[in-house]
Design brief:
This protein has two helices and 14 strands. With 246 residues, it is mainly beta. Strands 1-2-3-4-5-6-7-8 form an eight-stranded antiparallel β-barrel. Strands 9, 10, 11, 12, 13 and 14 form a six-stranded antiparallel β-sheet that branches.
Length: 246
Amino acid sequence: MVILAVAWFLGGGSLEVAVGAKPPARLPGVYAGVLPCADCPGIRHRLQLFGDGVFFFDLAYLDRPDGPFDDLGRWHREGDVLVLEGGRDAPERWRVTTSGRLRVLDTAGREIESALPRVLQRRPGVTVEPWLFLRGQYRYFADAGRFRECRTGRVWPVAQVADNAALERAYLGAGVEPGAPVAVRVEGRVVMRPGMDGTGPRETLVVERFIRREPGSGCPAGPGARDSATRSSGRPGEPVQAGPGR
């Protein structure tokens, strides 16, 4: 058991779509833009696509006190359509244009007929650090905690700040062997921080609020698994039941 635990810790504006044209193959990166809003100046979108099929998403209504609305999950392509499967009830779809921009589609995957700009452009050098509710497996071993997020499978070191002490107490109170997984639910931020071993910045989970231990030690399967990444209605706050519409 201890050997397995050590191994786990170390593992760690225009449509622009031409007939017959192929969208660019290079998709991972950060895309950003401000999309139209019916009763506000706009909705800021920032989407980070990683090469392993994971995405981070940050959405905020300009000049509004609520939000932002963050999400994470997995992405894949269906031809020239980018599909995001995260915390929403249904996947989001974006058209990949021949110039490498992303154009939002409606919930059925159809084009939105509008003269208003509905595209995101690549923004090199920008990172997205989501703050949201997360479900995953927590392990504590050798005075260090690791969190495996259920939807993406990403494993992050847990910073020893904020509500980390409550998370550690809950783990120690679970009565499991050191390094064994415990299912938990937390509210946290995924941020870039220097590694504990002195290496460069790496993704790290800051637990802003420990919520509870969950039954069992694994991740849920089926429709309930979508709840592993629910966007936050505020910082801090409670999760909203439905994300903002387009």
